[in-house]
Amino acid sequence: MKTFKPFTLLMHAFYIAENDLRQSFKSVRHVVWSLLFPIFMMFTFSFRYGVPGADISFMNFLIPGIVGMTAMFGSINETMSIVWDKSLGVFDRILAAPVSSTAIIVGKTMAGAVMGVISALVLLVIGSLLFGVSFGNIGFVLLIVVLASFSFTGIGTIISGLASEPREAMMLSNLLRFPMMFFGGVFFEVDKMPMPLPYISRALPLTYATEGIRTAAMSGDLAMISVDAIVLIAYTVGTIVVGSKMLMRLMTR
Amino acid sequence: MSSESAIEVSDLTKYYGKLLAVDQISFEVKGKELFGLLGPNGAGKTTTIRMICGMLRPTSGTIVVAGFDVSQKPEEVKRRIGLVPDISNLFGELSARVNLEFMGKLYSLDRKTRRERIDQVLELFQLKERQNDLVKYYSKGMHRRLTIAAALIHQPEILVMDEPTSGLDAQTARLVREIITDLNKEGRTVLLTTHQIDEADRLCQRVGIIDRGHLIALNTPEELKNSTEGMRALEIKILDGVDMQRWLPIINEAEGIERAFLAEGKIRVLSKDLPQAIPTVVNLVDKHGGKIDSIAVAQPTLEDAFINLTGKSIREEPMSKEDYLKRRLARSGMR
């Protein structure tokens, strides 16, 4: 039946990701706007809170959280481009070409993850340059950022599978992203929230992303972030499996 | 590709849920043929070609393209087909060259071949000077030319075009028709869909008439015109002041009249017995207080054949809700 050619598949996925990112970065405004929101947030909080914690400044707490949140925004947005592609008909171009549906999904996921990582890095640099936040073990921070970005692409594919048009996708993504933002440990410590909110938080991938980045920023111990890393990997696998099933169903209708 | 069949469709059926879009269609497109699927909006044309291109899974039936079964070897089929969709679906944020680059990559062309082919098609479609402009700034005609160029990048033996001239101004439409004829003369098989009867008549070597998911006739345009079998046409213009539409039911009711419909501001009357029909129509118009401005006997056209076969005109038919839904389902990418 189908011959499996991993090299061709990877090349196709790579080209699709390249093409996606090329478009996103072509409209610079789009990228700048999406980054302005977390940057603005960072500044706002820096004016409001000086040093709230006992031994860790609030900014040291907040900025790793915002980095995680930005990875989420970047990667979900980029993966959701599938919905725009569908509505503009450009998706047909790819569907009509001899490209396997797996390559399409891998490509979109790659683009989403790259966008998530790049967005997070911009915020990370701003945070450390302007607010002097130190990111202790940058290698581990990056590891968590990469894993988190991949886990959010899964959410992006699920949204793309559910939404039939861009407006619906925007609505769905806001429905998921805003609660995640508030319960995902970006602004408050998850375990200090009133019951039963911690349980909700523990169900969200963003919680593990923010915690992981925070922990990695403070210590160089791999064991400390291993739980976060494992949960994020599990999330990635789970959401991508579900998301691709939904997309596959649509593509091979 | 020899002159044997390029596309073989047998008993093709497609349901969108409970909605029947294509109903047991069978036809064959011969190698190097210019074949047209003619039908009104919502007839199932787009659904059919999307299934041929492997973008939509048939509910039942088989499609063999260039010897490959679409459901078994979709990628082999896709490699041999160039699809020109009815709307421009290029990446607006990217330049023409980058768009073509991407297409070349999807068809796994190496860098050198890509560059050569891109230069070649840009030259052919006179887009070279604007190759680095963003596609979103292109005019409609340039969009269409680039869409065709993009479908040729992998030099497919079969070109599938969905409504290639719809929405274009007369001049660009003429240019596109010339391009289609040239591509066919070069030895490429062309399958196109159209809802314009004169386009099918002028362009295609064979035409399949499709209506409500059924293939109701398939022949050369000449043979289709002859299929009106002794049917002849009258063109009548009535001085009335009011719309011509109100005369249609009156004339349609009359004896010896097969069908009456509006075409280019005139009432076209089909009848098998013209000597009988002429006085009938004249009397009828007189009786209802109209004055005949002109009356002429006309050659049967492909449109007459179409109307005779489908019982309706291709152009004045408003789209039903169901047709609209089918159109949306066929065109909306994946859903």
The count of DSSP E runs of length 2 or more, i.e. the number of strands of chain A, is 0
Low-confidence regions of chain A: 51-55
**Radius of gyration of chain B, whole Å:** 22 Å
> What is the terminal-to-terminal distance of chain B?
34 Å
Mean pLDDT of chain A: 84
Helix-strand string of chain A: HHHHHHHHHHH
State the shape of chain B.
elongated
The share of residues in extended strands of chain B comes to: 25-35%
What attributes characterize this protein structure?
heterodimer; A: 253 residues; B: 335 residues; Alpha-Beta Plaits; six-stranded mixed beta sheet; four-stranded antiparallel beta sheet; 12 helices; 27% strand
Structure, described:
The complex is a heterodimer of chains A (253) and B (335). Chain A has one domain. Chain A contains eleven helices and no strands. Chain A has helices at residues 6-26, 28-48, 58-79, 81-88, 90-96, 101-130, 138-162, 166-183, 197-202, 205-218, 222-251. In chain A, helix 3 (58-79) runs antiparallel to helix 6 (101-130), helix 6 packs antiparallel against helix 11 (222-251) and helix 10 (205-218) runs antiparallel to helix 11. Chain A is globular. The relative contact order of chain A is 0.14. Chain B folds into two domains: 5-225, Rossmann fold, CATH 3.40.50; 229-299, Alpha-Beta Plaits (2-Layer Sandwich). Helices cover 37% and strands 27% of the residues of chain B. In chain B, strands 6-7-8-3-9-10 form a six-stranded mixed beta sheet, with helices on both faces. A four-stranded antiparallel beta sheet of chain B has the order 2-1-4-5, covered by helices on one side. Classes of the chains: A mainly alpha (253), B alpha/beta (335). At the A-B interface, helix 1, helix 4 and helix 5 of A face helix 2 and helix 3 of B.
